[in-house]
Amino acid sequence: MTRLTNRRRTRLALPPRVRFWLGLILALVLGYIIALAQSAVVRPPLVVGQDAVPPSGQAAGVTSTLENEGGAFINIKPAGEAKTLLVYYSGGLVRPQAYEWLGRALAADGVQTVIPIFPLDLAVTGINRAAALIKKFGEGKQIIIAGHSLGGAMAAQYAKGHTNQLNGMILMGAYPAGNVTLKDTSLPVLSLLAENDRVANPANVRDGLNRLPASARLTVIPGSVHSFFGRYGPQKGDGLPTVTHAAAENEILGAVRAFLATLPTP
């Protein structure tokens, strides 16, 4: 019996050259999987103020600090008293400082922007983070929730159960998930779509309007791409821009300011 088993093992044994190449292929595949996992788990450094000056220039007296309230967040405050609180959910795997430019620009209009820092930079890990921030900073202010890409979808999910504490919502290259609807609410909503976005399918963004209030406004940012909502560099699978990043930011900022101007003051 032992001899028979040994013979079978001998027949099944692979030639050394084949074993070498199989081992090499397996090692490469394993290394690739580990590298992907590491890029998600080990996030790049968070540097407040890095590449954050808005295209229109820095308003005087704006401060941007890293703070903690039920989790870390970037707190961008105007020089004077803020009349609006903007809670911004970053895109998936995007460091929150990529959206600091927007908060610094809006500070000139009396807007305080808080950007939560999520585990793994995924808003899905902390959909309700806005609650503590609104409780801490929101009294007497307009409360706006906003988000980019996955962050926008999670902002919409938060808004679904908290419309009574919100005065508006801004989605950037984003739309509510299929099981999330705010259609029967009166929440003012601005949906921004980059014309050459190839990450957030424009058809899906437009279809998302069917799950938003009838008054929801869709604004297309000409020549822009998905990654131009933040400052984190080119994104795999995105389209090609036909405008400069600064030009797109000015369009985004103008659309946001116009939307905020339509909301009643607190």
Describe the structure.
With 266 residues, the chain is of the alpha/beta class. The chain has 2 domains: 2-40; 51-261, Alpha/Beta hydrolase fold, catalytic domain (Rossmann fold, 3-Layer(aba) Sandwich), CATH 3.40.50. 33% of the residues lie in helices and 18% in strands. The chain has 7 helices and 8 strands; from the N terminus they run H-H-E-E-E-H-E-H-E-H-E-E-H-E-H. The chain has helices at residues 2-12, 16-41, 100-107, 129-137, 150-160, 202-208, 245-261; strands at 63-68, 72-77, 84-89, 111-116, 142-148, 168-172, 189-194, 217-221. An 8-stranded mixed sheet has the order 1-2-4-3-5-6-7-8, sandwiched between helices. The chain is globular, with a radius of gyration of 23 Å. Residues 27-40 have low confidence and may be disordered.
Count of separate DSSP helical elements: 7
CATH fold-level label of the largest domain: Rossmann fold
Q: Percent of residues in helical segments?
A: 25-40%
Uncertain stretches of 5 or more adjacent residues: 27-40
CATH superfamily of the largest domain: Alpha/Beta hydrolase fold, catalytic domain
Taken as a percent bin, the fraction of beta residues is 15-25%
Biggest beta sheet summary: 8 strands, mixed
Give the neighbour order of strands across the main sheet: 1-2-4-3-5-6-7-8
Topology, number of strands: 8
Shape descriptor: globular
CATH architecture verdict of the largest domain: 3-Layer(aba) Sandwich
InterPro entries: AB_hydrolase_5 (IPR029059), AB_hydrolase_fold (IPR029058)
Domain Alpha/beta hydrolase fold-5: 86-246
Protein name: Alpha/beta hydrolase
GO molecular function, one term: hydrolase activity
